[in-house]
Amino acid sequence: MFVSLQFKLELKKEDKEKLIKLMREQSSAIRVAHNMLKELEKEKAKNPHAQIYHRLRKLKKQWRELRQGTLISIGSKADKGNRLMRFEDLNGQLCLRITTGNREFIYAKVLREPSNSKDKWLTFMTMLLESWQTKSYFAYTVELKLREGEVYGSVSFELPMPKVRYTKENGVIAIDTNASPIHLAIAEVSKTGELVSYQTISLHNLLGLSQNSKDHQEWILDHQIVDLAIEKGKAIKSFCKS
User: Fold this and answer.
1) Beta-sheet strands, E only, within 11-133
2) How far from 36 is each of 52, 60, 69, 85, 181, CA to CA, in Å?
3) Bridge-partner residues for 175, per DSSP?
4) pLDDT tens, 167-191?
5) Degrees, nearest 5: CA angle 52-55-57
6) First-to-last CA distance in the chain?
7) Where is the domain boundary, 158, 190, 219?
8) Which of 115, 173, 209, 223 could form a disulfide with 213 if both were Cys (CB 3.0 to 4.6 A apart)?
9) Residues 23, 75: Cα–Cα separation, whole Å
10) Domain span at residue 219?
11) Last residue within a domain, chosen from 138, 158, 178
């Protein structure tokens, strides 16, 4: 599953000017691409060959992307995640290193805080930190836009699929919610379907809490259930209604 996250950049005045210049240079590339499009349209009329259509479709796609006034750098695992726009730790501050050409770079401070404990930005930060430590990198694509004089960005990356460690081959931890009284029922079931153990957890303390407090308590409860499943070596089966 691919995830896209938004952030804002803070740059020094001279670095911001360099970045804007880079975007203006890209505008020049737009004009060149537009002229190439017109030439290909004429070529298509003279020679309606399948290869011409393929080139035209590809060029139109690139031109539409450039016309948006954005800078895009496609992710590359071989280039420490991204060759031209790379996240780096600079004296404890998360920065985006932007290549301006001729092996020259500018560093922009990344302004982004997680909104809650489920924010995928935390996942991205964890993946980044692990890649820096292990030197095992993952690809992420970065796109920058200039909006009302400020530089905003987005990063897109693929969430790793977790390896399945516990299956129903050893039984399950079955969970369900009940309304009266409001509680969570947890049953440990063997691989042959026999009840091994049973417990309940009251959910009454969640009533009346703010959304943030409720999310936090549910996060704690989720981890308690996962810890139990790991201890018993069983998969989790939920009967809770969403």
Assistant:
1) 70-73, 75-76, 81-82, 85-90, 93-101, 104-111
2) 12, 10, 18, 27, 70
3) 186, 238
4) 888 899 999 988 888 888 999 999 8
5) 105
6) 21
7) 158
8) 209
9) 19
10) 168-238
11) 158
